[in-house]
Amino acid sequence: MMNGWLSEFYQFCWMLESHYQQRLAWEDAREARLARERAEAQAAAQLKAMLEANPSGQLGNAEIDDLTALKSSGLL
Length: 76
Description:
This protein is mainly α. The chain has a domain at 16-50. The protein has helices at 2-53, 67-72. The chain is rod-shaped. The termini are far apart.
């Protein structure tokens, strides 16, 4: 009799824990969706700013320490 009660009590506690973990997973998923929406909005704003800065859409082929570009601009 005592063994059956302990088993039921353990199953009840395990059920409560699993429900708690499921709620945590739902909260994590909600936060991930919000973070993704923020990142997408930020990327769209950055793209808009880049296109406003350079409307032709060509951002160029700039390189770091490009000697030819530095000489032609008079920096070297």
